[in-house]
Design goal:
The complex is a heterodimer of chains A (about 300) and B (about 300).
Chain A lengths: L1 H11 L2 H9 L12 H30 L4 H6 L9 H10 L4 H33 L5 H10 L5 H14 L6 H9 L2 H14 L2 H9 L4 H12 L1 H17 L2 H6 L8 H12 L4 H23 L16
Helix pairs in contact in A: 3-16, 5-16, 6-9, 6-10, 6-13, 6-15, 7-10, 10-13, 11-12, 15-16
Chain B lengths: L1 H43 L1 E5 L9 E5 L3 H7 L2 H32 L7 H9 L6 H12 L5 H8 L12 H27 L4 H8 L4 H12 L1 H16 L3 H6 L12 H11 L3 H31 L4
Helix pairs in contact in B: 1-13, 2-13, 3-7, 3-10, 4-7, 5-7, 7-10, 10-13, 12-13
The chains are: A mainly alpha (about 300), B mainly alpha (about 300).
């Protein structure tokens, strides 16, 4: 990640204060104020630590709560772990003939397929907007980008009514199709293409007689791969986290993603508190894949793209 | 001659290419963004006229309603209280969220920051948790029967608060959104900070500037574009608040079905089956969103694409 190297130069450029004050106490001339940097560090470090603990609190809770049986959930101290994790997992897996795992698969399908298609469409559009000069370019871009401003539900209700007219509601398509076009993905791909694909390479390919689409597929797209992975990740998380669209579109719980599935379980839980245990275990399982994806692909979270400051 | 014609043909293909390449995005955008907006606008001007007892085929006909639905929406006290609640929610949430994100980003960007990697990953982690799951987790942390706070207070014989009660639930929702949003904004700002060349701080440090002065005089002004960008996206997300209160509803009675304007849209469209009122409210919300964020967006665009044009 580009930011990593920038970070090391930033800290590396002030070696005197760092090395002398903290790591070499044997130099008497620098020991006149030995504890100042230490004390100055204390408050910022504590603030960061509090922030980190605040963010970890609910995650720690769900880890502990998923080990509790139905009765200890309401009686024992919140953060006291218990021994029912395996039992909870089995109960969740067998609940409704294993519908929970069906929801997980559905979510993976919606997010995986949707994000791949979205990255492909965004990549091609972003490349075109960055590399071609044509009439209507900035109008098209501005209209597409303005899509970011339209609140989801403002779209979701008419989308539902329109898809109902063509009989597509309560199908996989009703969740997949509206998730493909991403103004944000196009915006990111445009910035990335502008920075990563040199005009000279495109010209050279043209001179060699490549077709326009061939240039994109064989020359530009490979250069844009890191940016496209970023678009994929953002869209994957967006679809994975989207609750409203599937909530409105789907009626059959066989097609639910895990977010909607757990919500319906929670809703039933007010009448049957025993279900809370399954909801909690399900919540834990549903965040594991995303957290794993997230930590393993950390270097692709190129959020610098958002502020437009890309160095490809 | 033949080379001239092929060249002309290529030129033609090259002018057609960008339109062909943009076709998939444009078609999907038209089908799933523009047409629904148009349809919502159309529905918002319609209503159902019931003749007779409203029974049988043809007893309910859709007719032009003019601005009737809008008049009803604008004079609806539920919508007003929901709308004002969301504006208050945004006015509280956005500054706190971006303030904390900025604070964390600046603390991470200090030379010799400790626990940097741990703090950065932990604070960014909630971004990987869907809002509905986050609301569910916090919901159980609020629920008096399972809350650690209530457990501890009860232990010491102190009065137990109801974190999901009438007054507190507003802040409970703000907290969930804050938890989910700080990390992402922090990473955006932190990455922007990392892109600033370190030499800019050198002379300031030599002149005896403290890190706090450097943060206020150099870093924050240079972060302005990123701050504008994060503000726009936070504002849009704020006005759409729906999932968090929706997820808390099964756990508490203090959230009505029209607690936020979007919840009212959902209720009108699906529970009371008045899609015309829902459409009019949607259009109003979209208009307010556009008005509030358009100025910001223009500024962002000029910053991001100023050099490229």
């Amino acid at each position: 990640m580009a930011t990593g190297s920038a970070g090391s130069t930033a800290t590396g450029s002030v070696p005197t204060t760092r090395a002398t004050a903290n790591e070499r106490p044997d130099r008497p001339d620098r020991r006149g104020r030995p504890d100042r940097p230490g004390r100055a560090q204390l408050v910022p470090t504590a603030v960061l630590l509090i922030g980190a603990l605040y963010c970890l609190l609910p995650v720690a809770w769900v880890l502990v709560a998923s080990t509790k049986s139905g009765s200890t959930l309401f009686t024992s101290f919140t953060f006291a772990p218990s021994t029912s994790l395996v039992g909870n997992l089995t109960d969740l897996s067998t609940y409704g003939d294993g519908i929970f795992w069906r929801w997980m698969l559905n979510t993976a399908l919606y997010a995986g397929v949707g994000a791949v298609l979205s990255a492909a469409v965004s990549g091609l559009s972003g490349y075109t907007l960055a590399k071609y000069r044509f009439a209507g370019r900035s109008v098209l871009f501005n209209v597409l980008l303005a899509g970011v401003l339209v609140p989801g539900i403002v779209l979701a209700v008419p989308q539902y009514l329109l898809l109902a007219k063509v009989g597509l509601t309560d199908t996989y398509w009703s969740v997949l199709l509206p998730s493909i076009v991403s103004p944000y993905g196009i915006y990111l791909a445009r910035i990335y293409a502008a920075a990563a694909v040199p005009d000279s390479v495109i010209e050279a390919a043209r001179v060699d007689g490549a077709s326009e689409f061939g240039i994109f597929r064989r020359v530009a797209a490979p250069m844009m791969v890191p940016g496209l992975i970023t678009v994929f990740l953002f869209q994957f998380v967006a679809i994975w986290n989207n609750f409203l669209l599937p909530f409105i579109m789907l009626a059959d719980d066989d097609r639910f993603p895990v977010t909607v599935g757990l919500f319906t379980l929670l809703n039933q839980g007010s009448a049957q508190p025993a279900l809370y245990r399954l909801v909690i275990t399900g919540a834990l399982l549903s965040i594991i894949p995303l957290v794993a994806l997230f930590l393993s692909l950390q270097r692709y979270w190129r959020v610098d793209l958002i502020s437009g400051s890309v160095k490809a | 001659m033949s080379t001239a014609t092929t060249r002309a043909g290529r030129r033609g293909r090259r002018t057609a290419a960008p339109y062909a390449f943009l076709a998939p995005a444009v078609i999907l955008f038209v089908l799933f963004v523009l047409v629904p907006i148009g349809y919502a606008a159309y529905l918002s001007l319609r209503k159902v006229r019931v003749s007779g007892l409203g029974l049988g085929r043809g007893a309910r006909t859709e007719v032009f309603a003019g601005l009737e639905n809008y008049r009803a929406a604008v004079t609806d006290s539920e919508l007003w209280s929901g709308g004002l609640r969301v504006l208050g929610y945004g006015a509280l949430l956005v500054p706190i969220m971006l303030g904390l994100a900025l604070l964390f980003a600046l603390l991470l960007d200090r030379p010799r920051a400790r626990l940097g990697r741990f703090a950065r990953t932990s604070i960014f982690l909630p971004y990987a948790v869907p809002a509905i799951i986050a609301s569910l987790l916090w919901g159980f942390l609020y629920l008096p029967a399972t809350s650690p706070l209530n457990y501890l207070l009860a232990r010491f014989g102190l009065p137990e608060p109801d974190l999901l009660g009438g007054g507190a639930v507003f802040f409970a929702v703000v907290n969930i959104a804050l938890w989910g949003g700080v990390g992402f904004n922090m990473i955006v700002l932190y990455t922007a900070l990392r892109a600033i060349p370190a030499e800019l701080y050198e002379s300031a440090r030599l002149d005896g500037c403290s890190e706090v002065q450097i943060a206020f005089r150099i870093k924050i002004p240079l972060l302005a574009p990123a701050l504008v960008m994060t503000t726009v996206f936070s504002m849009i997300a704020t006005l759409q608040v729906f999932v968090e209160p929706m997820a808390l509803r099964p756990l508490t009675n203090s959230i009505s079905s029209t607690w936020t304007p979007l919840m009212k849209v959902y209720r009108d469209a699906f529970a009371t089956d008045d899609r015309y009122a829902a459409a009019a409210t949607s259009v109003l919300i979209a208009a307010v969103t556009l008005v509030l964020s358009f100025g910001f967006l223009r500024l962002v665009q000029n910053r991001a694409f100023g050099q490229e044009r």
